[in-house]
Amino acid sequence: MKILNIGSMNLDMVYQMDHIVQPGETEASYGMNVFLGGKGINQSVAAAQAGATVFHGGMIGEDGQPFLDACVKYNVDARYIRQVEGKSGHAIIQIDKNAQNCILLFGGANQMLTEAYVDEVLEGFEAGDILLLQNEVNMLPYIVDKAYEKGMQIALNPSPFNEKLDAVDMKKISIFLLNEVEGFQLTGEKETDAIIAKLRELFPHARIMLTLGKDGAVYVDEKQQVFQPIFKVKAVDTTAAGDTFTGYFLAGLCEGMPIPDVLKMSAKASSIAVSRPGAVPSIPWRAEVEQALAE
Ligand code: RIB
User: Which atom in ligand 1 lies closest to the alpha carbon of residue 37?
Assistant: First the structure.
């Protein structure tokens, strides 16, 4: 089984701050780095580092060569990535002294997908393959409709959650990967149990992977509900923690691992990512995750 991820690639400009800047305030940062990121490529790299066969699709601008280099380095198949005129997407990320972040996005090339491009990419995939999506590229409703027609399993991380998702036919989603805030935005429910109950009512056949921050994660499908606590670490940068969890989770599903093992592996990988700066460079390889689990 293959994973196709049509997703964002962002140059993350990351600023270390005492606190996140408030409206009207000017605040000096005490460090700045540029990392490769974007929810799309973060999740592709994580799934590939976990051992899955991953194809990444999407657009980069004239400054996007580092993403192609990263795909080589992390075993992500980049044949569907296209370079267009203009700038790649970017993100301005502030990290405060408690490792909390806030993210400002510029879509750039991520917003330049076309129907013809989507059709061309989907031609390489078949029923049963997994299509992974986040909400940082354009054309989501079209991609979902076309992939569903082909019988692909569609995994959606509805992040960032905004009105563009209203046009997506959520009944076509097989796997929801979301956090509690997105769970609230999708269901109107605030409590974990209520979010799960509502998601089950709305999408009775879907698999639901709900992450709960420091409170762990819950997986639910038609047959089982499994809880996974976090592995506690000193957080340095939480950027891409959720993306790491998502990539590892899908890789575990592709392998047919029992869900409790998938969750444990994903939580461990995510905890390692949190202990390192940056998005893509913070994501661990499978061997490191397994060694950490064995310790
Ligand atoms: O999920 C983290 C990612 O969100 C960052 O890498 C940033 O680029 C934004 O897409």
Answer: 6
Instruction: List, in sequence order, every residue forming a beta bridge with 106; answer none if it has no partner.
Output: 90
Ligand 1: does its nearest atom lie under 6 Å from the Cβ of 90?
Answer: no
Cα 42 to ligand 1 centroid, rounded to whole Å = 8
Token pair of 180, please? 């509690």
Cα 84 to ligand 1 centre (Å):
21
What pLDDT is attached to residue 1?
84
Burial 22-52 (b: 16+ CB within 10 A, else e): eeeeeeeeeeeeebbbbbbbbbbbbbbbbbb
Amino acid at the residue 248: Y
* Composition of the chain by helix, strand, coil, percent to 5: 40, 25, 35
pTM of the model: 0.97
Q: Per residue in 219-248, pLDDT tens? A: 999 999 999 999 999 999 999 999 999 999
Strand partners, 81: 58
